[in-house]
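Case study 2.
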Amino acid sequence: MSQYTFSGGIHPYDGKELSKDKPVKEVLPKGLLVFPLSQHIGAPAKSVVAVGDQVKVGQLIAEAGGFVSANIFSSVSGTVKAIEPHRVATGGMVQSIVIENDEKYEEVEYAPAKPLEQMSKEEIVQAVRQWGVVGMGGAGFPTAVKLAPKNPEKIEFVIANCSECEPYLTSDYRRMVENPELVIGGIKCVLKLFDNAKGIIAIEDNKMDVIKKMQELTANEPRIEVYPLKTKYPQGGERQLIYACTKRAINSKMLPADAGCIVDNCETLVAINKAVTENKPTLHQIVTITGDAVNDPRNFRVRFGTNFRDLLDEAGGLKGEPEKYVSGGPMMGFAVFDLDFPVVKTSSALLCLMHDDVIHATQTACINCGRCVEACPEKLIPSQLASHAEHENYAMFNKLFGTECIECGSCSYVCPAKRQLAQAIKSMKKLAIAKAKEEAAKKGGDK
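Prediction:
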């Protein structure tokens, strides 16, 4: 049993066998591509192109709208057809740049990159900022901001989050099988920023083949070590990962840097490597199209802006009409009602399920079994939090640390009463945080 783990967690059916053993397939987009100006945490990017402009692959089409924001680049050559609102995976309408692909893929000329050993720390961070790198594991936080903590000398660990604990998803696994050197190259770039840090490549032990490959490739890297993590969901959660690797705990009021850690997803490290060592933006994402409703589940290397409906066609279409489509994985993803939305920097997967267990479940009263407490990786009491959420009891919700919930869904998964605990807590958490900000603003105004 691996020593690298955390308390709580669950072992859901992982569904990874559907796509894990098939090579990544390149997909060229068709027709119109949509580039939302908000595909990262922070301020939306601002368009620097106009309708009718001709663009090339790798051309800047939107610049960061603030310190916490990110540049956006065209993944194809063609003509800007519109700048207008378009629907994204979350269901909202976001101002977007629409480009008609001319299918020539003419690329801009990039300046040659300096060798990594000759680059200063400032140049590395600037390259990451210039080329619009964000957290590609789903969070979308601008990476240049993360790589510039207040006290860089206090960073002791740079952790590559390669656990991929979410069921069904296999894009990180395929990346490590096919391009492990790019992940290692990315962690080397980050380590150059932090003189006192050790690099950790954290991989769940259900992926022993890539663990062994990574160990071989880093055998002569004194600052990098591969940690086999115990296979358990949510092992890839930032707080759980940090604790598993370092035994240091953080909460919602802390950043990983406060525990001396920098954590980057597998694909984010590949993007960092490209930005720093090639002086180029990342224009693709590896996306898993999977589920029992898909004829040929597999991973696709997709240009940003590509429509998800086209990806489903590349996967051989559907066996029948699914009861549920999920953007992302089954635990932390969200149901979608339409597939007409684009691949963006934070896209990970489309899950198509013939049977929707959730809508067919019959909720009953809590039986006080305590399973949700055992499963919660944050050591909360989900059954009580959900009850307080249902009654909008902010005082008790906050007293029981409801805002510390990481929304992993473990409690709902294990509940024999089929209560939608995570959904209730997640909704109440948003309201509680908003209410706290409102009250803080009022107190500030009274002074």
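Residues 421-446 form the longest helix (26 residues).
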